[in-house]
Amino acid sequence: MRIGVSSYSFSSYIASHPNTTYTEICTIAKEIGFDGIEFVNLDAFGGVLGEASTAHAARIRTHCKEIGLDIFAYTVGADLLAQNREEQVEATKRSIDIAHALGAKVLRHDLTWNLPQGMSWQDAIPVMVPSVREITEYAQQAGIRTCSENHGFIFQNPERVKAVIDCVAHPNYGWLVDIGNFMCTDCDSLASVRIAAPYAFHVHAKDFKKIGAGGITTPAGNHIAGTILGHGVVDIQACMDELNKAGYEGTVSLEFEGPEDPIEAIKEGYQVLSRCAK
Asked: Are 183 and 211 in contact (CB under 8 A)?
């Protein structure tokens, strides 16, 4: 596996360094040793980082090429159960254009964060499927594969994500497997990765620790909080081994969202992945 880092991991660093640019983040990632980077919504942070356009994406791509850093993936939001579903699909297509300008070969989009009143998650799947197919068929023309991640609570449980992918049944659509996010719905990470691995198009390496109160509250009432990779309860090595066993040869992006110093956390996460993702 090749090792990358999500721009999301730099969120707290960006907040404390408001003049930071994406090219500076790329340079830091390269200096740490990463093979590549994954971007999350180029307009997500506002200010200097707030220009989401193909021209901006092309400039970032040029910089990454100059320093020898690949761009693995582009990650965006979406709500395919929203009343403005057609607008959501068109916005995702525009994001595919940005992914193409970046040179990313994978785009991850959300499915939904809320179920309409009276709708079960099973009922939601056939409603979303036409939109998912339309998005992935558009992306396929640009040589980009699409996927959805196990997050957002509604489609975070592994059986639910698998059901979506099986129903979409398109070779260009798969799974962004976040090995930590399964904990948010009280699922065991390793058992969940066994289900997800055959569908994996991209992987997030994330860790959580269990806490007494605060943080993320799971459906069962447990409390968890993000932390440095290797400091939590996710068995990183076992999850990477399971992906290897399934024949996964793609990329894995470090995703850090804890309270610790972000640069030190990213550096330590890189060391963990260097040992575990072989």
From this structure: no
Give CA–CA dist 203/45, Å, rounded.
23
- The stretches of the chain forming alpha helices (DSSP H) are 11-16, 22-32, 54-67, 85-102, 121-141, 158-168, 189-196, 236-245, 262-276
- Domain harbouring 244, CATH code: 3.20.20.150
Domain tally, the chain: 1
What does residue 2 show for φ and ψ, rounded to 5 degrees? -95, 145
**Taking Cα atoms as reference points, which of 162, 197, 180 lies closest to residue 1?**
197
Q: What is the rounded distance in angstroms from the CA atom of residue 2 to the CA atom of residue 5?
A: 10
Element holding 107 (H helix, E strand):
strand 106-109
SS3 content of the chain, % helix, strand, coil (to 5): 45, 20, 35
- 125-143 residue pLDDT tens: 999 999 999 999 999 999 9
Tell me: the pLDDT tens digits for 149-169?
999 999 999 999 999 999 999
Secondary structure (3-state) at 245:
helix
Q: How many C-beta neighbours within 10 Å does residue 167 have?
A: 14
Contact 194, 242 (CB under 8 A): yes
Average pLDDT in the 108-133 region?
Answer: 97
Q: What's the DSSP call for residue 104? A: -
Cross-strand bridge partners of residue 174? 147
Q: Do 208 and 232 meet the contact criterion of CB atoms below 8 Å apart?
A: yes
Which residue range is the domain that position 184 belongs to?
A: 2-276
